[in-house]
């Protein structure tokens, strides 16, 4: 609350002294600061300001945030690249920290037009930020008609930047993540858009696949991060594919991904390992007896990475790699997965498989610190993770929390039910594919 008061004081000073005060901070920077304070305020019904007794409820904070966002949307059309970038960064923060469906519904076409303009004409940093805002806009609008409209409008330009070797690497990486997220949210029932997005992502990361002689190609700095982002988004979209498509993917990609475990880039190796585990889980969902044909060699490679002690690698990299590849190895050998609990409010979800982990990690990459807020209040995420409608709690309900086991069983049952429903949709799409 004290931070909020300080922000208001700064804004009033900026108003008295002109566009810039003595500190040289712009209005856009101040708006960004205010948004950060709003996002960190309590989610309770109201807050009491110190010394005044004035009640600032959640609705007031929401309205003030929306007023700031309106100005940011106007600034997206400014001629100054610096102003547009500041506006995009503020929208990024606002969209990730609050659920704004009603606010965005009537402004979605304006925002989409502005984002398209930034993607087409902006510099690398502006393109990268605009792509992230595209993903957040889809998450805010959900998987309905509104989200589909926005995705169909923005998919071509996201794909174009992604496959453009002359575009900046940060912009291409951001577009890879945005294309995967937007397609997952808004085009899960559209076979054509799904296949096109999968194809574009695939065309990027196959650049790390082995050459004809079996050796891995040398790539310039920054490319492995792009390939990792494209591979992870591709893996996310694979969870939407019908069984016939999964079988084709397994036959074509598993041997090549196995070779990519020898990559010199630790983060790319980890992305490859997690993708291998996810593909094996998809294969086992289709056929319980599924087993990769060269499983013994794969397990040997995973064991080497799980016990890697090369001193020329950073200590943190070695630790992270060993931890991930131990999990991958245990899953390939025994179907054993280390469950992870994500707590938010009085609720929790359980990450009990590689598919579920990839879905959660994808939303976490886009929403960052706002992911728990969206798990509580965003209907899209609550539907995906089987949480039901957002909870409205009073003191008596908060006091009667259900046990951990009951929550786990409920969440697992809901996720399995949703998976079965999605498998039916996969079967319906199989002929189209």
UniProtKB/TrEMBL annotation:
Residue intervals of the Interferon-related developmental regulator C-terminal domain: 378-430
Pfam families tied to this protein: IFRD, IFRD_C
Span of domain Interferon-related developmental regulator N-terminal: 35-333
Family: Belongs to the IFRD family.
Entry-linked PANTHER family: INTERFERON-RELATED DEVELOPMENTAL REGULATOR, INTERFERON-RELATED DEVELOPMENTAL REGULATOR 2
Descriptive protein name: Interferon-related developmental regulator 2-like
Phylogenetic classification of the source organism: Eukaryota, Metazoa, Chordata, Craniata, Vertebrata
């Amino acid at each position: 609350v004290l931070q909020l008061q300080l922000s208001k004081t700064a804004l009033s000073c900026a108003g008295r002294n002109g566009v810039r005060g003595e500190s040289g901070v712009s209005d856009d920077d101040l708006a960004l600061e205010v948004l950060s304070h709003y996002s960190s305020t309590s989610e309770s019904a109201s807050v009491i300001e110190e010394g005044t007794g004035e009640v600032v409820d959640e609705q007031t904070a929401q309205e003030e945030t929306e007023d700031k966002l309106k100005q940011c949307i106007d600034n997206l059309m400014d001629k100054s690249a610096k102003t547009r970038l500041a506006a995009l960064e503020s929208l990024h923060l606002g969209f990730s920290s609050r659920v704004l469906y009603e606010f965005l519904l009537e402004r979605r076409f304006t925002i989409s037009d502005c984002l398209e303009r930034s993607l087409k004409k902006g510099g690398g940093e502006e393109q990268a930020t605009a792509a992230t805002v595209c993903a957040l806009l889809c998450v805010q609008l959900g998987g309905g008609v509104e989200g589909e409209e926005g995705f169909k409008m923005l998919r071509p330009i996201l794909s174009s930047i992604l496959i453009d070797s002359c575009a900046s690497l940060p912009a291409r990486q951001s577009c890879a993540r945005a294309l995967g997220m937007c397609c997952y949210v808004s085009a899960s029932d559209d076979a054509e858009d799904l296949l096109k997005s999968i194809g574009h992502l695939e065309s990027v990361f196959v650049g790390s696949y082995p050459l004809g002689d079996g050796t891995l190609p040398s790539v310039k700095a920054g490319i492995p991060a792009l390939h990792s982002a494209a591979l992870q988004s591709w893996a996310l979209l694979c969870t939407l594919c019908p069984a016939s498509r999964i079988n084709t993917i397994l036959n074509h990609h598993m041997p090549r991904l196995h070779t990519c475990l020898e990559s010199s880039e630790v983060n790319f190796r980890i992305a490859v390992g997690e993708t291998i585990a996810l593909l094996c889980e998809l294969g086992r969902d289709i056929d319980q007896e599924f087993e990769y044909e060269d499983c013994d060699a794969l397990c040997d490679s995973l064991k080497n990475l799980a016990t890697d002690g090369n001193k020329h690698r950073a200590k943190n990299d070695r630790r992270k790699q060993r931890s991930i590849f131990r999990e991958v190895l245990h899953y390939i050998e025994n179907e054993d997965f280390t469950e992870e609990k994500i707590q938010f409010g009085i609720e929790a979800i359980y990450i009990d498989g590689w598919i579920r982990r990839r879905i959660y990690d994808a939303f976490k990459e886009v929403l960052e610190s706002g992911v728990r807020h969206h798990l509580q209040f965003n209907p899209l995420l609550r539907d995906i993770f089987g949480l039901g409608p957002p909870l409205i709690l009073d003191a008596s309900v908060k006091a009667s929390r259900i046990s951990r086991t009951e929550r786990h069983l409920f969440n697992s049952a809901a996720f399995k039910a949703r998976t079965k429903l999605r498998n039916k949709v996969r079967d319906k799409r199989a002929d189209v594919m």
